[in-house]
Amino acid sequence: MNTPKTRPIPILMYHSISNEASPAFKPYTVAPEMFEKHLAYLSQHDYCALTVTQLAAILAKPVPAAELPPRPIVLTFDDGFEDFYTCAWPALQRFKLPATLYVVAGGVGGTSTWLKREGESRRRMLSWDQLAELCAGGIECGGHSLTHPQLDLLPASRASREIIDCKLMLEEKLGRKIYSFAYPHGYHTRSIQRMVREAGYSSACAVKYAMSATNDDIWGLSRLFVSNQVDEQRLGQLLTGQNNPLIGPVKRWLAPAWRLKRRLASNN
């Protein structure tokens, strides 16, 4: 049987698994009960979960489509909120699913100070002990910068330090190598990608609101955002590519104008 040259790969992007959130942050939370239903759906439909680093290793193969399991999926979680430990991880353990957790290194043991505008600056982050336990339990830990800035708006020297110091801190505190990175807010440029490569990471996740694939850029892997509006039916639509196909391309087309708007706002 011939193996297709390109295969779609859904990489899901979660943030907080919680019932509590400010109105502005609500879209970034998924209730624990609904998250459990998401995992049940994946189990019932025979999805095989990979970490980002496992996926990146497969994508580096000569014929990656031939190396993938029949129904691959990647579960990622951005920021490193404490509710990953209390709510997400127990559910992942029950369903025996791995995941990749992208951590804001400078926020470990504190709160999400970068979410002040959303009214969530006091949302608790994971502790170093919790992170160590998660890593020992099979969760992949990746870097998500030191303080969660918009990297593409920073001077190059500061952006580089955010990327490098995040990796150094995580590796020192956890005693293990950190291989993958996720761009805060998904914002990145070719120069930011180069900084991530030079820092020693082997892959990086963007957002793009699109399905990844075997021909995707491992330094800007596409992810599907999972909001609080995603129930089992909508999850099925995401996984089968039935989400709005125009969202990703339109957002990429508008990226330069949006970057200028963000830069002007940051200067005020």
What does this structure look like?
The protein is built from nine helices and twelve strands. With 268 residues, it is of the alpha/beta class. It has one domain (8-267): Alpha-Beta Barrel (TIM Barrel). The longest helix has 21 residues, at 247-267. The model is unreliable at 245-264 (pLDDT under 50).
Structural class: alpha/beta
In percent, how much strand structure appears in the residues? 15-25%
What is the name of the CATH architecture? Alpha-Beta Barrel
CATH class: Alpha Beta
Number of separate structural domains = 1
Order of helices and strands: EEEEHEHHEHEHEHEHEEEHH
Q: How many DSSP H or I helices? A: 9
Average predicted local confidence, pLDDT = 91
Overall geometry: globular
Please outline the major beta sheet.
Answer: 8 strands, parallel
Short structural description:
39% of the residues lie in helices and 17% in strands. It is α/β, with parallel strands linked by helices.
Chain-wise SSE layout:
Elements: E1 8-9, E2 11-14, E3 16-17, E4 29-30, H1 32-44, E5 48-50, H2 52-59, H3 64-67, E6 72-79, H4 82-94, E7 100-103, H5 128-136, E8 140-143, H6 156-174, E9 180-182, H7 190-198, E10 203-208, E11 212-213, E12 221-225, H8 232-239, H9 247-267
Parallel strand pairs: 2-6, 2-12, 3-4, 5-6, 6-7, 7-8, 9-10, 10-12
Antiparallel strand pairs: 1-11
Helix pairs in contact: 1-4, 6-7
